[in-house]
Amino acid sequence: MDWQEKRYMVKVCSMYYHDGLTQAEIAKKLGVSRPVISKLLQRAKDEGIVRVYIMEESVRTVELERELEDKFELADAVVIPHNGLSGEMARRAIGQAAAHYISQNLKNVENIGISWGETLAHFVNEFPFLKKGDITVVPLEGGMGIKNVNIHANQLANELAKKLHGNCTYLYAPAIVENEELKQRLMSTQDIQAVLEIARAVDIAIVGIGNPFEDSTLRKVGYIEEQDLRELEKKEVAGDIGFRFFNINGQSINDSLTSKIIGVELEEFKEIKKVICIVEGTHKVDSLLGALRGGFIDILITDEMTASALMSKDTAGL
């Protein structure tokens, strides 16, 4: 290859890779056919003039995604690079990734169910404005009061519906009521029955995972107290989805709170077409492992450190 030929090839590569021009645009600019440009680009790779690299962090996360999909029979997995993020920044990054993924996968979706929590609040905040007026968003459990209203299922359903230019239904009941008798009275009302019926049949359910013992949102908002934690610990609870508790093997746990919760039952999540779980933090590994073993999740969106810790723990047989 002489100098002139090499120079011409580098010029074509620069226009394609650096300037972002299409092969057709380059062909028109240089007065040649598009197949000529295509052959030049391929020859540049063959000659080593152009080398295409996949960033190392992307390779690792894609490998983790495949491992998670295979190990837990997931329909899909999204793992975002760690990048040294922690706390709110990490939750925001997870929210951004989840918002992008879900916004791109709404074809034929008519109903979306959403749970509650800080991670899901970040997801809704990051969700783009779309014109999907034919979509209805429904809360998967109750949520009323004046404390931490921004993370309640009703509020998140309302905010997500606004961004979709869609519709929203409300579950006018607390997530946890005072006693079982009150729960039965509320559950017998026509409005609550109607909302829960929609919630059980949504096309997509968007949920988070809770760990009641460490950095627990349940404790922060006052839904559970020390005596509740002692009971959950005795029953070997690993985590919860929408206030529904399970152990590390994915078995449902009945406790004093269960009989007072208004929302979709844990086993009912298995009947929903697509359950997307958004979770961040290695302190939730046991909780996530239990949810996966229980078969409550179809799609997982998480961070690299959590995914790595999850695979390590499951491989160890814990």
Automatic annotation (TrEMBL):
Pfam families attached to this UniProt entry: MarR_2 (PF12802), Sugar-bind (PF04198)
Entries under Gene3D superfamilies matching the protein: 3.40.50.1360, Homeodomain-like
SUPFAM superfamilies in UniProt: Homeodomain-like (SSF46689), NagB/RpiA/CoA transferase-like (SSF100950)
Gene Ontology molecular function: any one: DNA binding
Residues annotated as domain HTH cro/C1-type: 20-40
Keywords in alphabetical order: DNA-binding, Transcription, Transcription regulation
Family statement drawn from the similarity comment of this UniProt entry: Belongs to the SorC transcriptional regulatory family.
Name used for this protein in its record: Sugar-binding transcriptional regulator
Species this protein is from: Bacillus mesophilum
